[in-house]
Amino acid sequence: MTLLKLLPELYLTTIGPREVWQALLEPWTQGIMHRALAEIVLLGLVGGMLGCWIVFYELSYSAESLAHALFPGLVVAVLLGFPLVLGAGIGVTVAAIAVAILGRAPEIGRDTAVAVVISALFGLGVVLALSPKSPPGLQELLFGDILGVSNLDLLLAAGLATVVLVALRFLHRQLLVVGFDRASARSVGGKPQLADIALLLLIALATVVAVQGLGSLLVVAVLVGPAATSRLLARRMMPMMILAALLAVAAGISGLYLSYYAGTASGASVAGVMVVLYLSTLGGCAILRSLRNARLAAESDT
Amino acid sequence: MFNPFQVPFVQRGLMEVLILSVGTGLLGTWIILRGLAFYSHAVGVAAFPGLVLASGLGFAPPIGAFGMAVLFAGGLERLARSRRSDYDVLTALILVGALVAGVILASDVFHSGSTIDTLLFGSLLVIGPSDIVLAAVSSGLALVATYFLGRVWLTTGFDPGMSRSLGVRSAMPDALLLGLVALVATAALSTVGALLTTTLLIVPAASMRLLSRRLLAWQLGSVVLTAIEGTFGLWLSVETNAPPGATIALLAGCVFLLLAAARRLRSLVGVRNLST
Fold first, then answer.
1. What value of ipTM does the predicted structure carry?
2. Structural fold of domain A33-301
3. Contact (CB<8Å) A224/B89
4. How far is B241 from chain A (nearest CA, A)?
C-alpha cells in the first residue's frame, strides 16, 4: 500500500543518478539498519556456504524441521528474559535429540518421526506463547525481526557464525568425499558417520544464528534458497559456495530495501526475495535449456 | 470436568473433530506407508495464503485453501519433473514462499494481522456448519477410496516396479491419494490450523503403528486414537484458552512418546527374559 502511494511521486520527480544514490543510501543512516545489515551479512555467509552442503546431502527437510522444532526454546527465552540465541540453542538441542531417538523406530521411518517431533514441539511452543500470562509477540518469533536485533545478540551470532565457517573449512574434504560416494568413502579416509553428525551440528548452529532475523518459520529460506540457486549455475563445490554466499547477502540486502520502501515485514521480505530468486533462476534455466534443445533439433534436421 | 462440552461452539468443534478423525486416521496410515510426511505438512502450509485471501476478499475459506493446496501439489509435480533430485528443495522453498505470501498479505495488504494466529493454529470459534459438511464429505471420500484403492496403494507402496508388472497403473491412484490428502488437510485447517495439520494426519497414525502390525487393526486404531486425542485436546483448549491445534498436538506428541517409551521398555525386558 505504501508503495502504491509512493508511485505518483516517483513519476513526478525526475530521477537522476543523484536521486538513485540518495534512495540507496537513505536506509543506512539509522543505527537500527546498521545492525540489521550486519545480521544479514552474517546469516547470508553462513546460510549460503552451509546451504550448499544441505542441498548436496538432501537435508532440506531436516533443516526445516529443526528450525520449526526449536520454537518452544524461543518462547521460553522470551518468557524468562534471556537472549534468544540461548533459547534457540537449547530448543535445537532438544529437537535434535528427539529426532535422533524417535528416528530409530523402524516401523515409522525418519520422515514420520520428524513430523511427530515438529508437531508436538510446535504445539508446546504455541500453548506456552498464547497462555494468558505471556507477553504478546508470537509473530516475531515465528517470522523473525531483523530490525530488533540487539548488540549482544549480534555478538553471539558472530561468534557462532565464525565457528560454522571455520568448521566448514576444516571439514571440506571430508564432506566432499562422503557426499560424493558414501560407499567407497572409507577407502580414501572418509568417515560417513562423522560427516553426517558434523553436518547436523553445523545446521543446528546456523539455524541458531539465522533464527533471530527470519524466525522459526522462515529460516529455511536462507539455508536452502541461495544454495539451490547457486547449484543451478555452478558445477564445482568451491565456486558454488562462494556464489551462494554472495547471492544470500545480495538477496538479504535487497530484502531490506524492499522492507524499507514497501513497508513490509523485514524477515518475510528477505525470505521472499530468496524464494523468488530461486524460482526465477529455475524458470530461466528451463527456458534456456528448451531454447538450446530447439536449436539443436533444428540443426540436426538440416 | 465435562462442563465445556455443554457450550454450543464446543459441541460443534467436538462433532467436527470426531467426523474428521475418520478421514485423517485412515489417510494417516497411507501417508506413513507411502512416505508422504513432508508433502502433507507442506500442503497444509500452502493453504495458508489461500485462507488469508479468502478472509480478505470475502469468499469461502475452504475454496481458497483447497485452491492453493492443489496449485502447490500441481506446481511441485510440474517443477520437480525436470529435476528429480530437487524435490525436497522445491518443497521447502515453496513452503516458505507460501508463508511469506500469507504473512505479507495479512499484515500489509488486508491489515488482518491479528487473524494470523487463528489461521496458523486453528480456532474453535471459526468452525461453522459448512466446515462440518466439508469434514463429512472428505472423510466419506477417504473411507470409500481406502476401501476400493487400498490394495493398489499398498502394492505400489511396497514395490512400484513390481506393481506395474502386475498390471497396476500407478499414476492415477497415486494422484488420487495426493488429492485426497490435500482435501482432508483442507477440511482439518479450521480446527488445527495451517501449520499443524500433521497433528491429526500423522501423529495418531504413527502412534498406532507402534502397537499394531496388521493394516486393518492399525487403521481402525488410528481412527479411534485420533477421536480420543481430538476430544481431550478440545477440552484442554477450552481450559487453557490455547488454540485447539496446539493442545491436540501437545497431547498427541505425549501419547506417542509414552507408547514409544513403553515399547522400548517391553523390548528391553523381553531381551532380558530371553537371555536368562
1. 0.84
2. ABC transporter involved in vitamin B12 uptake, BtuC (1.10.3470)
3. yes
4. 7
